[in-house]
Amino acid sequence: MITLALSKGRIFEETLPLLAAAGIEVLEDPEKTRKLILPTNQPDVRVVLVRATDVPTYVQHGGADLGVAGKDVLLEHGGEGLYQPLDLNIAKCRMSVAVREGFDYAAEVRQGTRLRVATKYTEVARQHFADKGVHVDLIKLYGSMELAPLTGLADAIVDLVSTGKTLVANKLVEVEHIMEISSRLVVNQAALKLKRDRLRPLIDAFASAIPA
Ligand code: PRT
Ligand code: MG
């Protein structure tokens, strides 16, 4: 049996064409079922639905043989025990620093003010500000980061941006672009050895179907 870990939403949707290229069709719609294990048209392939941040953990510990996870999630996880053969070029966005409209970020940084930064991505944020030599107090949040500068919880946030509409709707502006984000295929290292005959063709089919 081959178990593939996916999160509901954009990663599931954008992985479907890659699965199709490998001849795999998921037989149930995650938005319509309460099941967490979905069968496919291949009797020896199943999909498990987990939170996006849990995909690397499932694959690392063998709860799934492979999975699809954002670079953001993989950088926070650390990637231990994971083979990352492919950048799938799906679920694309960027990681950025954003502040409230009217907050003079450049001046605050220049003056050496200690910035309060709220984020779900503390590892990436810590590294980013350390590289710039900017002193920050990091505040760990699990969602709705946009609220932090508006309520005075933080001066800035580090968050993912795709269309930019969420920032605009909350009167925030992007002041720094940290990195481009896309999702990667992750494979359990032991599974890759033990199930190589089944996993290799699958990885190759995925590779052939990566969007430009
Ligand atoms: O939503 P949930 O709390 O269940 O979990 P999650 O947010 O971890 O999962 P999900 O499915 O939302 O995201 C999975 C992966 O998709 C992330 O790990 C990213 O690699 C990738 N991705 C691509 C994004 C976005 N684009 C994105 N726009 N993840 C989140 N967003 C959010 C962003 O955090 C912000 O709140 O969308 C909002 C901004 O969108 P725009 O279009 O208004 O700029
Ligand atoms: Mg989300």
Automatic annotation (TrEMBL):
Protein name: ATP phosphoribosyltransferase
Enzyme Commission number, as recorded: 2.4.2.17
Domain notes: Lacks the C-terminal regulatory region which is replaced by HisZ.
InterPro entries from the UniProt entry: ATP_PRibTrfase_cat, ATP_PRibTrfase_CS, ATP_PRibTrfase_HisG, ATP_PRibTrfase_HisG_short
Domain ATP phosphoribosyltransferase catalytic: residue ranges: 51-206
Pathway: Amino-acid biosynthesis; L-histidine biosynthesis; L-histidine from 5-phospho-alpha-D-ribose 1-diphosphate: step 1/9
Function field: Catalyzes the condensation of ATP and 5-phosphoribose 1-diphosphate to form N'-(5'-phosphoribosyl)-ATP (PR-ATP). Has a crucial role in the pathway because the rate of histidine biosynthesis seems to be controlled primarily by regulation of HisG enzymatic activity.
GO molecular function, one term: ATP phosphoribosyltransferase activity
One annotated GO biological process: L-histidine biosynthetic process
Keyword set, alphabetical order: Amino-acid biosynthesis, ATP-binding, Cytoplasm, Glycosyltransferase, Histidine biosynthesis, Nucleotide-binding, Transferase
GO CC terms in record: cytoplasm
Subunit structure: Heteromultimer composed of HisG and HisZ subunits.
Uppermost EC category: transferase
Location within or outside the cell: Cytoplasm
Residue stretches spanning the membrane: none
Catalytic activity as recorded in UniProt: 1-(5-phospho-beta-D-ribosyl)-ATP + diphosphate = 5-phospho-alpha-D-ribose 1-diphosphate + ATP
UniProt record similarity statement: Belongs to the ATP phosphoribosyltransferase family. Short subfamily.
